[in-house]
Amino acid sequence: MTDEFNTTVYYDDDADSTEIEDATVAVLGYGSQGHAHAQNLADSGVDVIVGLRESSSSRDAARADGLRVATPTEAASEADVVSVLVPDTVQPSVYADIESELESGDTLQFAHGFNIHYGQIEPPEDVDVTMIAPKSPGHLVRRNYENGEGTPGLLAVYQDATGDAKEQALAYAEAIGCTRAGVVETTFREETETDLFGEQAVLCGGITELIKVGYETLVDAGYSPEMAYFECLNEMKLIVDLMYEGGMREMWDSVSDTAEYGGLTQGPEIIDEGVRENMEQTLEEVQNGEFAREWITENQTGRPVYRQRKQADVNHDIEDVGARLRDLFAWADDEQNDESTEKVTADD
Ligand SMILES: NC(=O)C1=CN([C@@H]2O[C@H](COP(=O)(O)OP(=O)(O)OC[C@H]3O[C@@H](n4cnc5c(N)ncnc54)[C@H](OP(=O)(O)O)[C@@H]3O)[C@@H](O)[C@H]2O)C=CC1
Ligand SMILES: CC[C@](O)(C(C)=O)C(=O)O
Ligand SMILES: [Mg+2]
Ligand SMILES: [Mg+2]
């Protein structure tokens, strides 16, 4: 369906499940996205084989979930569709192992365009190369599916060797639950660049810095860490929930007019033109490949910056305060109550 913005959004009715029902899908990796795609595909009646290295700690989990497990090479050899759901940095070496197993007319399927867009994987011309990228962490892709709900996703076709790539990708999207919510068509380039920018500047990098700096400002001024935690982190979810449901308008309608006035006047003072320029710089480094080169080199040299930054982030005071408070309060579910307040390392 094409709406007034000329965006094509596909729903269940647009997908033809027969496009995938006779296929065997190899899901390489059983992490955040892999476990969700594999189980959703299997529950939708698709023949799934999970590809994991012999030493993989995920093998037991996949088997416990009732799935067949083989090595990536064996799985790819049996499959018509190979869904590459190991970490982006690992994909080129896993691909090198499975490339010879790809037959003419097979499909190479991704959930993010990094390795295709930045030329780290160059598939043969006679296979379809598609992407179904859920716009969500993998655990919610599974949870939503089980609850009968959907997860919005993006569809892109990089290479259509069979003439049927888009139809099969739509059937894959339906089988993992994305067309229940809506699937938007895009390109590998657009998905890769917007996804990297979004997670760096707003969703993961931007929000954690905003929370930490807000928390530190209050604590440094003598307020209690508990107050600072509630104000800057806990309530963030509740405010974002309102925006998720009804946009900024619904959030502004729900908060006090004092909050509205203060937010509308102080927000642009804090997220100022300097921040906009920083965001533009971040986007440029994504677009010109500088970030991709940096991340590839970081992995080739043992991730020194990653380890140091993650260690500092997960051991920030706000993490201890939050773990203690989530233990104490009634809204916390059992999973949250189980969490440890011990210091963790960057490898956790
Ligand atoms: N995380 C998310 O929610 C999202 C991810 N994506 C994309 O999905 C793809 C998968 O990401 P994500 O789910 O986060 O990945 P994960 O980090 O969760 O993948 C972990 C899985 O990959 C396996 N693995 C790790 N290293 C290797 C290796 N060297 N060889 C073979 N298998 C290995 C692990 O098994 P083992 O036990 O062997 O280590 C494990 O099963 C990426 O392209 C990502 O950008 C897209 C949207 C959201
Ligand atoms: C926001 C991070 C993400 O892009 C995602 C869950 O969509 C990722 O790469 O994990
Ligand atoms: Mg991403
Ligand atoms: Mg994303």
TrEMBL record:
This is Ketol-acid reductoisomerase (NADP(+)). It is an enzyme of class 1 (oxidoreductase). The keyword Ubl conjugation does not apply. Binds 2 magnesium ions per subunit. Its EC number is 1.1.1.86. Residues 187-332 form the KARI C-terminal knotted domain. It catalyses: (2R)-2,3-dihydroxy-3-methylbutanoate + NAD(+) = (2S)-2-acetolactate + NADH + H(+); (2R,3R)-2,3-dihydroxy-3-methylpentanoate + NADP(+) = (S)-2-ethyl-2-hydroxy-3-oxobutanoate + NADPH + H(+); (2R)-2,3-dihydroxy-3-methylbutanoate + NADP(+) = (2S)-2-acetolactate + NADPH + H(+). SUPFAM superfamilies: 6-phosphogluconate dehydrogenase C-terminal domain-like (SSF48179), NAD(P)-binding Rossmann-fold domains (SSF51735). Pfam families: KARI_C (PF01450), KARI_N (PF07991). Gene3D superfamilies: 6.10.240.10, NAD(P)-binding Rossmann-like Domain. Pathway: Amino-acid biosynthesis; L-isoleucine biosynthesis; L-isoleucine from 2-oxobutanoate: step 2/4; Amino-acid biosynthesis; L-valine biosynthesis; L-valine from pyruvate: step 2/4. One of its GO terms (biological process) is isoleucine biosynthetic process.
